[in-house]
């Protein structure tokens, strides 16, 4: 069962280098971790060929799936659109997997 989705967004000013944005998403899936592991294995191919300047880390933490997205932006940088699109695409994949695995979302924060 997909129990809860928690997000954390952190933007850090790096002086002349611009701003580093980090989005962490924790998807609490089930109490045994099987669904989290299955979702992780399905998402790993998405971690290939991501837009330049973006980084993604997917891993499990027992019963949760952790998704960490990072991008460093300079003034006028247009990669923020790619960053948002990438996060949206991964969340859409998780939603599809939840429907296929027939698990529902109890709570979204």
Automatic annotation (TrEMBL):
Protein name, per record: Uncharacterized protein
């Amino acid at each position: 069962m997909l129990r809860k989705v928690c997000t954390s967004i952190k933007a850090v000013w790096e002086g002349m280098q611009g701003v580093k944005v980090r989005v962490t998403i924790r998807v609490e899936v089930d109490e045994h971790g099987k669904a989290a592991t299955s979702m992780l294995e399905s998402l790993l191919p998405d971690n290939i060929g991501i837009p330049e300047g973006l980084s993604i880390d997917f891993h499990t933490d027992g019963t949760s799936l952790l998704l960490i997205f990072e991008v460093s932006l300079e003034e006028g940088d247009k990669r923020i659109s790619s960053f948002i699109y990438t996060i949206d695409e991964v969340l859409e994949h998780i939603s599809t997997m939840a429907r296929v695995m027939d698990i529902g979302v109890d709570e979204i924060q």
